[in-house]
Amino acid sequence: MESIRPTEQLVSGNLLGSVANKEEDPVTAKIRIKIGGVEVECEATEEFLKIELPTLLSAVSSLYGEAGKPSGAEPANPSTPAQVPGRPVEIAVTTFAQKLKAKSGTDLILAAAGRLTLGGGKASFTRDEISDEMKGATGYYKKSYMNNLSNYLVTLVKSGDLVQPTNTTYALSQAKRAALEQLIV
């Protein structure tokens, strides 16, 4: 197995990244890729990087393409996570619930996701963050919503209102974010 030397550079078009071994663990490598305003850092085994590096490069390239789009451009895939540009809007989860006319657990999750994304500036959030926001929606929150939270989240992911970037995080889809932005204008 050939080892990655600290001075090696990845070059593809305008894509530059540096690779460095950790001295205390020779099978672990660290890679940093920067394209324009998009920067990704990854630490993994050399074998993992050899297998997954093409996928990583493709994902970084896609992120760079998305970041370079004008603000009015439509995303290529409306089920991708919403980007969070600019400053967050000061708005309470109760206000989102009111504007959504929340009457169900899924409605309240969307209100919480709207608050976290548009009011909190978070591109993605955990189940715990969603439940904490839901509990802050005075007059809308019911304890039974926590018993059904998993089912509500699955429903929202299947409907395309939420996406699940990782197994433990959720994000508003581009389309749902745009709809929530219209509500708070």
Any descriptors?
Arc Repressor Mutant, subunit A, 185 residues, three-stranded antiparallel sheet, disordered N terminus, alpha+beta, elongated, four-stranded antiparallel sheet
Describe the structure.
This protein is an alpha+beta fold and 185 residues long. The protein has two domains: 9-67, no CATH class; 93-184, Winged helix-like DNA-binding domain superfamily/Winged helix DNA-binding domain (Arc Repressor Mutant, subunit A, Orthogonal Bundle), CATH 1.10.10.10. It has seven helices and seven strands; from the N terminus they run ββββαααβαααββα. The chain has helices spanning 46-67, 93-100, 105-119, 127-135, 144-147, 149-159, 174-184; strands at residues 9-12, 15-22, 25-35, 38-45, 125-126, 162-166, 169-172. It has a four-stranded antiparallel β-sheet, with helices on one face. A three-stranded antiparallel β-sheet has the order 5-7-6. Strand 3 (25-35) and strand 4 (38-45) form a beta hairpin. Helix 3 crosses helix 4 (127-135). It starts with 8 loop residues before the first strand and ends with a helix. The model is unreliable at 1-23 and 70-87 (pLDDT under 50).
State the fourth-level CATH superfamily of the largest domain.
Answer: Winged helix-like DNA-binding domain superfamily/Winged helix DNA-binding domain
User: CATH fold name of the largest domain, please?
Assistant: Arc Repressor Mutant, subunit A
As residue ranges, the low-confidence spans are: 1-23, 70-87
Under the CATH scheme, which class of the largest domain?
A: Mainly Alpha
Mean pLDDT: 74
| Class from helix and strand fractions | alpha+beta
Q: What would CATH call the architecture of the largest domain?
A: Orthogonal Bundle
How much strand content do the residues show?
15-25%
In whole angstroms, the N-to-C terminal distance is: 57 Å
When the domains are counted, the total is: 2
Strand order of the largest sheet: 1-2-3-4
The number of strands is 7
- Shape summary: elongated
Spatial extent as radius of gyration = 20 Å
Count up the helices: 7
Secondary-structure element sequence?
A: EEEEHHHEHHHEEH
Main β sheet profile: 4 strands, antiparallel
| Helicity range | 40-55%
